[in-house]
Design goal:
It contains 20 helices and two strands.
Length: 437
């Protein structure tokens, strides 16, 4: 059973546990509690529009900083065989800044924004080096199951802590907490503790990949200069890995549609008249219902392949957009949330694993830095189209329907990806490297 789930060795289970660990930040800090706390407490002295703008800029700043730094740091980590060290560095930044959120009080919007930026830098940066370990611990024929297992465990871990945090905030007195504001700050501390505690297995059980250098590299060379050289060579030689690059472009398009639906779900529900009490349970529904379906997508990929499985998921997303157009009640919203849960984790996890098998392993951190950039920075067009459609037509229904274009175009690009050729190019590039003690 563990083999079928992709958790059949200690290092695979330890690797997957980091998804469990960092998902607490994604659910409580990014999605659930902190955005509301920032607007209602930390930025309560600001005009609501100004507060929302500053929060949005904080999110953008964090992503931009990681996008600028991560390719170079990825190349440096590959050359120095220091993936886990860089993961630990970003983990430390993320955990310490999240723990410090307990000191945010009413009106401390600058402190809150600064810690939010640092926390996002920590989690996004750590994921670059976490993902880059996947091709080193999982064979090509098991990478899909391992990746989906990580997503499934992440859904479960993030959902459990978010549910606990919401219980504190909704009824603080039952937990001996004086008020909801204090409960929110304690939830931030719980995220830091959770994230740090469940990261320990990865550092204990997952080995650092062996150091491998290219023919023109020397063990004692200037690491920063060599990192810049590696980065320049990769950008120049993308034609050698054109299938991996095509996958990145396809992923950027369809993932933009996926992330737009995730980000705009509560806004869309509000636009059509649903209450906040109807929307919060839907977030938890996606978290917990996503667990078995993420595992199932890993098994499905073993039968029909990762690419076909992702295309199936994109077909379901197209159907979700059509059904959302006709949605009128909270029951409909929950049904759509369930449909999202069936494909969200699988589509993103299989994109990660398919990419992992199509890149040279001695440059995995560098390539996953680009994967992270495409994942984060291409999440701009979808929300922009959504907002433009709502503004120009006054209809949230037409806006959600416009997301179909992302799934169709992304699916057509993905259909052109030759996975076998991409894997062959990656393995050919590895033949030129040499191990270094």
């Amino acid at each position: 059973m563990l083999a079928r789930l992709g958790l059949h060795s200690p290092e695979l289970r330890a690797w997957a546990m980091y998804d469990w660990a960092n998902s607490a930040f994604l659910t409580t800090i990014i999605a659930g509690v902190f955005p509301i706390f920032f607007l209602s407490e930390a930025a309560a002295t600001l005009d609501p529009a100004v507060a929302q703008s500053r929060f949005s800029w904080a999110s953008t700043m964090a992503v931009a900083m990681v996008a600028v730094l991560s390719p170079l740091l990825g190349a440096l980590a590959d050359y120095k065989a220091a993936k886990k060290k860089f993961l630990a560095l970003f983990l430390g930044i993320g955990v310490s800044s999240t723990a410090a959120m307990v000191f945010i009080h009413r009106g401390d919007w600058l402190l809150a924004a600064t810690l939010f930026v640092l926390g996002n830098i920590g989690v996004i940066g750590s994921l670059v080096f976490y993902d880059s370990l996947l091709p080193h611990i999982a064979r090509a024929d098991e990478a899909d199951r391992v990746s989906t297992a990580g997503y499934a465990i992440g859904y479960l871990g993030g959902g459990l802590l978010l549910a606990l945090n919401l219980a504190w905030i909704v009824n603080p007195g039952a937990w001996g907490i004086p008020d909801a504001s204090t409960a929110a700050r304690l939830s931030f501390a719980s995220v830091a503790f959770w994230w740090l505690l469940f990261s320990v297995p990865l550092f204990l059980k997952v080995p650092e990949p062996a150091r491998r250098l290219e023919p023109d590299e020397q063990p004692g060379g200037n690491a920063v200069a060599i990192a810049f050289t590696r980065l320049r060579e990769t950008l120049h030689d993308l034609r050698l890995f054109k299938q991996a690059f095509l996958l990145l472009v396809a992923f950027a398009v369809y993932n933009d549609g996926i992330n737009t639906i995730i980000r705009m779900a509560t806004s869309y529900g509000t636009l059509i008249g649903l209450q906040p009490t109807d929307l919060i349970p839907a977030i938890l529904l996606v978290q917990f219902a996503g667990v078995p379906f993420a595992f199932l997508f890993g098994m499905l990929a073993g039968r029909i392949g990762a690419k076909r499985s992702i295309l199936l998921a994109l077909t379901v997303y197209t159907g979700i957009s059509v059904l959302a157009y006709f949605m009128t009640t909270a029951v409909h919203f929950y049904l759509l949330a369930f449909l999202v849960a069936t494909v969200q984790g699988g589509s993103q996890a299989l994109s990660r694993s398919m990419f992992a098998t199509m890149i040279p392993r001695h440059k995995s951190s560098e390539f996953f830095a680009f994967f992270g950039i495409f994942e984060k920075f291409t999440g701009v067009l979808g929300p922009a189209i959504f907002a433009f459609t709502v503004g120009s037509t006054g209809s949230g229904r037409l806006a959600i329907l416009s997301m179909i274009g992302f799934f169709v175009v992304g699916g057509l690009l993905l259909a052109r990806v030759d996975v076998a050729a991409g894997r062959s190019a990656a393995r050919a590039a590895e033949e030129w490297v040499r191990p270094v003690a």
